[in-house]
Amino acid sequence: MATDYFGVLGLAQGASDSEIKKAYRRLARDLHPDVNPDPEAKERFQEVTRAYEALTDPEKRRIVDLGGDPFDSGGGAGGFGGAAGFGGLGDIMDAFFGGAAARGPRSRTRAGRDALIPVELELDETVFGTTKDITVDTAVLCDTCSGAGTAPGTHPVTCATCSGRGEVQSVQRGFLGQVVSSRPCPTCAATGQVIPEPCPKCAGDGRVRARRTISVKVPAGVEDGMRIRLTGHGEVGPGGGPAGDLYVEVHELPHPVFTRDGEDLHCRVTLPMTAAALGTTLNLKTLDGEEDLDIRPGTQSGSVLTLRAHGAPRLRATGRGNLVVHVEVTTPTKLDAEQEKLLRELAALRGEDQPESHREAQGGLFSRVRDAFNGR
Ligand SMILES: [Zn+2]
Ligand SMILES: [Zn+2]
Question: Is residue 2 within 8 Å of 68, Cβ to Cβ?
Answer without folding.
Answer: yes
